[in-house]
Write a structure and sequence with these properties.
Keywords: Signal
Largest sheet: 6 strands, mixed
Shape: globular
Oligomer: single chain
Strand order of the largest sheet: 3-2-1-5-6-4
Distance between the termini: 51 Å
Structural class: alpha+beta
Number of helices: 5
């Protein structure tokens, strides 16, 4: 029995997309392997690439995230920011960024923007409530500008994402 070509193509495409979904690591694994540099900051650019910037603004590590990983990383941010983050990253797949120069030297919109009003390590509005996963706490929503601002034992990363100008200490 011969399969129609359209069915064969559909089968192959679904196999390819299923295997690429299986390759997506849990984003907490990706973050935990990140260089622990006190002056550094993690930033998820609008291209879907999570970059570690050192204190001098150089990219010291990068991770091209898939859509599920992007959603997972953004879920670490306060509930107030979720709608803005979901809109900004709708349809974004960082795995499509393959140019090494763009990964290491990103253009405008892919660099963390400093919020001049954000104070280092100042809690705001209490902890994020998430009954599904206690690890998603944003460390009592402590704001940060660099990893060194995050002092609690389980909160060692300062993370920023897309259009959200504030950095938050992350627990992964």
């Amino acid at each position: 029995m011969k399969l129609p070509i359209s069915l064969l193509v559909l089968f192959l495409c679904s196999s390819i997309s299923a295997s690429s979904d299986e390759k997506e690591k849990d984003v907490s694994e990706v973050i935990s392997k990140n260089p622990d540099e006190a002056d550094g900051v993690l930033y998820l650019g609008l291209d879907g690439v999570l970059r570690e910037f050192d204190g001098s603004g150089n990219v010291s590590a990068y991770y091209a995230l898939g859509p599920k990983q992007i959603k997972q990383y953004n879920s670490y941010f306060p509930t107030d920011d979720q709608e803005k983050l979901n809109k900004a990253f709708d349809g974004v797949d960082g795995r499509n960024v393959t140019d090494k120069d763009q990964l290491l030297h990103p253009g405008h919109g892919f660099w963390p923007v400093d919020d001049g009003d954000a104070k280092s390590a100042i809690p705001s509005n209490g902890p994020r409530d998430d009954p599904n996963n206690d690890k998603k706490l944003v460390c009592n929503r402590e704001q940060c500008k660099k990893h060194g601002d995050c002092k609690k034992p389980d909160c060692k990363f300062c993370g920023k994402s897309g259009p959200v100008r504030k950095g938050y200490c992350l627990s992964v």
